[in-house]
Amino acid sequence: xxxxxxxxxxxxxxxxxxxxxxxxxxxxxxxxxxxxxxxxxxxxxxxxxxxxxxxxxxxxxxxxxxxxxxxxxxxxxxxxxxxxxxxxxxxxxxxxxxxxxxxxxxxxxxxxxxxxxxxxxxxxxxxxxxxxxxxxxxxxxxxxxxxxxxxxxxxxxxxxxxxxxxxxxxxxxxxxxxxxxxxxxxxxxxxxxxxxxxxxxxxxxxxxxxxxxxxxxxxxxxxxxxxxxxxxxxxxxxxxxxxxxxxxxxxxxxxxxxxxxxxxxxxxxx
Amino acid sequence: xxxxxxxxxxxxxxxxxxxxxxxxxxxxxxxxxxxxxxxxxxxxxxxxxxxxxxxxxxxxxxxxxxxxxxxxxxxxxxxxxxxxxxxxxxxxxxxxxxxxxxxxxxxxxxxxxxxxxxxxxxxxxxxxxxxxxxxxxxxxxxxxxxxxxxxxxxxxxxxxxxxxxxxxxxxxxxxxxxxxxxxxxxxxxxxxxxxxxxxxxxxxxxxxxxxxxxxxxxxxxxxxxxxxxxxxxxxxxxxxxxxxxxxxxxxxxxxxxxxxxxxxxxxxxxxxxxxxxxxxxxxxxxxxxxxxx
Lengths: 270, 293
Hints:
The complex is a heterodimer of chains A (270) and B (293).
Chain A: E1 16-27, E2 30-41, E3 45-49, H1 56-63, E4 73-81, E5 84-85, H2 93-99, E6 100-103, H3 115-119, H4 121-124, H5 131-144, H6 148-151, H7 164-177, E7 182-186, H8 194-207, E8 212-216, H9 220-226, E9 229-235, E10 241-248, H10 249-254, H11 259-265
Parallel strand pairs in A: 3-8, 3-9, 6-7, 7-8
Antiparallel strand pairs in A: 1-2, 1-4, 4-5, 9-10
Chain B: H1 18-57, H2 60-64, H3 77-108, H4 111-126, H5 129-141, H6 149-174, H7 177-185, H8 190-219, H9 222-225, H10 246-254, H11 259-292
Helix pairs in contact in B: 1-11, 3-6, 3-8, 3-10, 4-6, 5-6, 6-8, 7-8, 8-11, 10-11
């Protein structure tokens, strides 16, 4: 579906990286999210919170068109990346994913590959690069993912030999190695222990300088700690998720406009 | 220091039926053990028989000479080379077909297509192998009015394809979807993800499937009877003519009234058993190594 050119200028400001307009996402006939309209600021962290099953992950997966990989899944509405509709038929979803990367809930390094090969997998499996370019990309990505010092002497060892927290940082390095502009994170710390979680949170704070980050989290304290803006989702009686409130994180947590948000952030439900 | 222990209270006490339970328990265990032994006896006996009779029949002649055109003597080199050639060609034919079919069913086919193809493959695995022989006979022997080794290799390939296809599919299904998603999420194309992530991760298992199919084909007799026929002449590389194979050699020589030829059959049987065992042990070793990692 193409974006209908809205009368007048688009509401997109230079500061807006992603503009989501009236987005519905379906699995066959089941509507998983309905009518989401919000914007994601460039070089900021946007957190998506809400109870289980409210479509947070589905929403995240519509942002890099991973959603449609599920058989029967489809989307209505539009998502603008720097003002251009990513659901325009002329868009190649594979190329889109070079710009909008993703980190998953469970660390998933490629088991047949070494640490080094994992980081440069996105480069190697897509195009060609010289040895020195690859080396440089690997070092830069691992440094940015705050993992270089821990692995620089064992780059040839399998990626799966690392601890869970290190594996997740390896996956972040792999995601940023292809130089994306947006990084989507689907509960990136929920499978990790508190110390590893803290390191991931510190890393997110650092990555914020260079990337636009959208993070789904179950953990409200985490959303409060890492994000600049927060979107609170919940679901209807028909189990379709929708956006209740979106705004600066501080506002959402201290002075929400909606009763539902207040109940959720104060722990009264969800 | 003495510990004062209370008497066992009633609620913890053994029931009166305890003795009977113990008897039933012991007899059922014994029965299960007996059945286990019964199940293993044929295997052990076959191994022992073939080994004892086969080792004494092994000789340089058996490994290096053709059967005498008439009478008794010579060796099984016709059958050894024939099995290697036909199983080799069958592998060359069956691996690409089985592998790609397995990849298609696992990675690309819709649910219904996959189900239909899987059903066909399962039926094909269970089909009596003599029927495969008859089938290939009508297409590759009758038109040429000549039994030929190519038809033999094709018949063996028909046996191998569904085995390779099903193992490939099952192995690819074991590769976590997470990994495919991780690859797609960094902007890798679907075909590249299938090759470099799914197949590469499942490769040891796929190879195991191929080796099991090879072992199966090497031991097949029925599909060869009506295709490659068997031959007492050494045939290297001429797939348009009949060719011998170890199972055919065993079948032919075991029926002869000469003890010397019967001994050759035992020798050939031992070689075949050895080959199949080695392949199986290699496969076990591989999967053991795989699971340790």
